[in-house]
Amino acid sequence: MDRTNPEGAIAAAAKRCSNWGRWGADDVLGTLNFLDEAKRREGAALVRRGVSFSLAQSFDADGPQNGWRRRTNPVHTMLDTGLDAERGQGFPHGLGGADDVVFMPLQASTQWDGLGHIFDHGVAWNGRRAGDVVTSEGDRVTGIETAAAHVAGRGVLLDFGDLPDGYAITTGDLEARIAAQGASARVGRGDLLLVRTGRLARARRDGWGDYAGGPAPGLSFTTADWLHRAEIAGIATDTWGFEVRPNEFDDAFQPLHQVCIPHIGLFLGEMWDLDALAADCAADGVWDFFLTAAPLPVTGAVGAPVNPIAVK
């Protein structure tokens, strides 16, 4: 890989890994097409003990965001409280209640990147003009609500322990980790792949610092072909940006995103909390499970919060 030629590398990978037209000109699901009814049945059959894990970080003011590109942590405000109920709210027979509201960027914490989130030279998923897809009214074609009923099936966790910032996880690393974890870690068509780098655990131990946007371990740009070939439905990590940071080229910003989303049609999850699940998987030696991870169906959104649930 020529570090000095990101433009050429991105263009070549986009051509090799393109799924444009694979599911027709009107497709809005991308790689979620791989997650079919049979794959959901396979995932459901993995529930043995009934133990469940939430893979979401908290959505609160103590979150990871630092204001980059106007991304802030959630602001939670009460509209009605117990004090209001004590003083009377106008309901009959002593009824009282509490109400609240939250303001936040949709990618403030654990979330999915939708297919309208990233473009390549003004082109969106499946070869559409970006301006025809996302307008001031939101994503009018591949809004995150189109994925809401589909993200449930077989999940697989690959646990890399505690990788240093800037470590690029290669195809060789992925295949070696699968081999080391055994048969339950096989990765294939329609799977939802989770990759733990240890970055979130470190942020919780040492403080958020530059977790949001700073150096981190992550997927190497060179894994684009593997991600395309594996035919996974989606991939999520415990990092802010999924791919290794700093990126592997001298002058590039999130080049793997630029291939994965608009060309492969791959759903990317970020800031997932995989620590407790990883500990359980290590304890029983089983690395696959039923995973349901529907995004909040905010109409026209290009990304959305999610509370993923893994059940073993």
TrEMBL record:
The domain of life for this entry's organism is Bacteria
Q: What start-end ranges are recorded for coiled-coil regions in this protein?
A: none
InterPro entries according to UniProt: KFase/CYL, KFase_sf
Checking Pfam families in the record gives: Cyclase
What is the protein's given name?
Answer: Cyclase family protein
Organism from which the protein derives:
Paractinoplanes pyxinae
